[in-house]
Amino acid sequence: MLEWVKLPERRSETGNIVIAEVEKDVPFAIRRVYCLVDLDVETRRGFHAHRQLEQLVICLHGSCRILLDDGSRRTEVTLAQPNRGLLLRSMIWREMFDFSQGCVLMVLASEHYDEADYIRNYDDFMQLVGVPSDSFS
Ligand code: TYD
After folding, report:
1. Residue 50 annotated among the catalytic residues of the structure
2. Which of 114, 134, 136, 1 has the alpha carbon at shortest distance from 50?
3. 45 in ligand 1 pocket by Cβ < 6 Å?
4. Residue 113, class by beta-carbon neighbours within 10 Å (0-12 exposed, 13-18 middle, 19+ buried)?
5. Are 111 and 36 in contact (CB under 8 A)?
6. How far, in Å, CA of 136 to CA of 106, rounded?
7. pTM across the whole model
8. Residue 116 in contact with residue 84, Cβ under 8 Å?
9. Distance, CA 34 to ligand 1 centroid (Å)?
10. pLDDT tens figures, 20-32
C-alpha cells in the first residue's frame, strides 16, 4: 500500500531542482495538478478514496501526516521532503493531518476533477473493497 517515489534532484549551491517526469518517475499521464496551501494546522482532511484516480502527493514545504487505509490495513506516514512523493493508487482511503505552519502539498493526478470518482463515506468504501466495516474495531 505504501509506494514512495524518489524524485531525481539537481542540487547546487544556488538551489535545488526536483524533477518529476511522466513514465520515468510518475507512473501515469498527468491530467491535473493541484496544490493545498494555507492549510489550517488543526484540520484533518481527505476522508475519501477514489474509484479510479491515481495521485502522486509531494510535500513541497513543511510537513504533514497521512493515513492510508486499503480496507484491510492502515498505516500512517510523514510527508516532509519535496523529493519523496507518495503514490496513492485507486481505492485507498486517505486522511491528512498534523500540517506544519505553511505546509504546501502538490498533487499530480491522473484524471480531471470528477466528484463521481470520490467515495466519501467510509462504510461505502469498506463495502466496495469487500471488508466488513467493523473489522478495525
Ligand atoms: P477534496 O478533494 O475533498 O479536498 P481534501 O481531500 O483536501 O479534503 O476537495 C475539496 C473541495 O474542492 C471539493 O468541493 C471539491 C473541490 N475540488 C475541485 O473543484 N477540484 C479539484 O481538483 C479538487 C482536488 C477539489
Report:
1. no
2. 114
3. yes
4. exposed
5. no
6. 30
7. 0.94
8. no
9. 9
10. 999 999 999 999 9
Tens of pLDDT, residues 16-66? 999 999 999 999 999 999 999 999 999 999 999 999 999 999 999 999 999
C-alpha cell at position 29: 499521464
Non-local CB neighbours of 32 within 8 Å, separated by 6+ positions? 108, 109, 111, 112, 113
DSSP per-residue codes, the chain: --EEEE--EEEETTEEEE---BTTTBSS---EEEEE-S--TT--EEEEEESS--EEEEEEES-EEEEEE-SS-EEEEEE--TTEEEEE-TT-EEEEE-PPTT-EEEEEESS---GGGEE--HHHHHHHHT--TTTT-
- Rounded to the nearest angstrom, the distance between the alpha carbon of 131 and the centre of ligand 1 is 26
Residue type, 21: E
Residue matched to cell numbers 475519501: 48
